[in-house]
Amino acid sequence: MPSRSRGLTPLLLLLPGGGWLVVFFAVPMAFMLLVSLQQGTFDTGYQLTWNFGIYPEVIVRYWDLYVRSTGFALAATLLTLAIGYPVAYTIAFRGGRLKNALLLLVVLPFFVSFVIRTLNWRMILSDNGMIFGFLKDLGLLEPNFHFLATPASVIFGLTYNFLPFMILPLYVAIEKIDRRLIEAATDLYASRMQAFWRVTFVLSLPGVVAGSLLTFIPAVGDFITAEVIGSGNPEVFMVGNIIQRKFLESLDYPAAAALSFVLVALVMALVTVYTRTVGSDRLAG
Amino acid sequence: MTTATAFAPRGPGLGVRLRNLLLPAFTGLLLLLLFSPIGVMIAFSFNDPAGRQNITWQGFTLRNYVDVWGRSEITDAMTTSLAVATISTIVATTFGTMIGLALTRFEFRGRWIMNLLIFIPITAPEIILGASLLTLWVSFDVERGFLTIVAAHIMFNISFVVVTVRARLAGFNRSLEEAGMDLYADGRTTFWKVTFPIIFPGILSAALLAFALSIDDYVITSFSAGHTVTFPLWVFGASRVGIPPEVNVLGTLIFMVAFVFIGVQLWAQRRQGRTAEAAPVTMVGR
């Protein structure tokens, strides 16, 4: 390669993709900030008035929604971790020759569209559907029992949809663990539980952190689950539902943009606190 | 529990044997849960619904599999989705591979900016990416439709391609390229004859990932769609009351394609595994 072009090559390689990301990702973020500071109505047009007051306004008005979204996403994250860890552990340590096949089985259901999967869950979990209808016929449930449109149903939907995001990073982390370290711990009279919590779990922490971030961040911004499994019940709405409605239905762009930025700030704050608490130095090892 | 296990005898007693069954049983149950909406989807794609609703089992029919091709709003939406996925995959895979090469092969200033540009779209909630694009279209009075959807899909796919390709390039043995150069191949020949074939599996899996993400996307698409309808958008719109059987038909067909594809990949892995064992370690590229 001629030395002259050496300096230019990386630039040429980066330019098309980098340019695309600047124009369709970075620039829109800047525009969203500007739109959030506009005032007016959709019919008369929005004017940029640097209305920073919109931020305290939406935070106060939608505080409950941010709290609920965070709560739902946290609950779903903890559930995916509690369910996903034993599964990732089993596949990594006990999977043997079936490791890859089992891993692919875990991922396979997620090749069916997110929307179709969620719609089918709504059908399974409906008031007189195949589970609750059956239990009601047997007299095991009150006839007016319902699960859809409750907070628990939304958390269930989020947990289901984000399970692979937890299991895959956990598997990668657990699979890498040198099993002789666990043997060493038990040789030194650690109980199986002690060996698990002090060796296996600690060494799998990078997977725990990656998995919980990959679950929490998309879950906190999700709106399909609350729309479908939550049956559009405003009492289980998450911030995403309001953002989507304001942008696409009531066309209240400034408030929707401000809500989005507050969500970004919330996510960044929580992620920073989380990674600090877990301690990045512990993750390096 | 802790004390019970701590003082458990070391031989394979009944407790130990039960405990050994616990984890595989739990994994099996979870797989059952994961597949339950898929099972229902497949079953109800053969349902013969009485009215427009498709909620209770009425009887077996294959008619839905024939009818689906006659409903133009479904085939149109599917065609749109396939077109969007194909175009965005080709463009994003090309651009993303170029970025991946630049990031692994060259030292340059401002690398952190590039890393940030790739990292944030992957980690940010989808609704933020979709919503911010909408403000761009609105601010410039861009009419939303096919092209805006494609632009959006290329954007979110580039990052995933870069990450996938970079993982492949990270385990790349540069001495193979040096060998090519030593044998008087110029830079271009070395790239196409040595580098590209080695990283090609990475590029291919990146492209497949991009295609899968694109064809399934609802959130970002909904903000850039206007009156254009992709398959996920149509499904969502059509499902206000119940799920039309045609949705489950197409879902089942997509699932079958994925199933066959994964089966083939598993089989290829098995074969690759065998040859890798036979080949000298240096040839694997690690």
Any descriptors?
heterodimer; A: 285 residues; mainly alpha; MetI-like fold; two-stranded antiparallel sheet; 14 helices; 2 strands; 3% strand; globular; B: 286 residues; 77% helix; disordered N terminus; disordered C terminus
In short:
The complex is a heterodimer of chains A (285) and B (286). Chain A has 285 residues and is mainly α. Chain A is built from 14 helices and two strands, in the order H-H-E-E-H-H-H-H-H-H-H-H-H-H-H-H.
Strand elements of chain B, count: 0
Contiguous runs where pLDDT drops below 50 for at least 5 residues of chain B: 1-8, 275-286
Low-confidence stretches of chain A: 1-5
CATH architecture descriptor name of chain A: Orthogonal Bundle
**CATH H-level homologous superfamily name of chain A:** MetI-like
Please, how many helices of chain A? 14
How much of the residues of chain B is beta strand, in percent? Answer: under 5%
Q: What is the fold-level CATH name, i.e. the topology of one domain in chain B? A: MetI-like fold
Estimated helix fraction of chain A:
over 70%
Strand content of chain A: under 5%
Structurally, how many domains make up the residues of chain A?
Answer: 1
Level-1 CATH class name of one domain in chain B: Mainly Alpha
Tell how many strands the DSSP assignment of chain A holds: 2
- The topology string of helices and strands of chain B comes to HHHHHHHHHHHHH
Give me the side-by-side strand order of the main sheet of chain A.
1-2
How would you characterize the largest beta sheet of chain B? none
CATH H-level homologous superfamily name of one domain in chain B = MetI-like
From the coordinates shown, what is the CATH architecture of one domain in chain B? Orthogonal Bundle
- So how many helices of chain B? 13
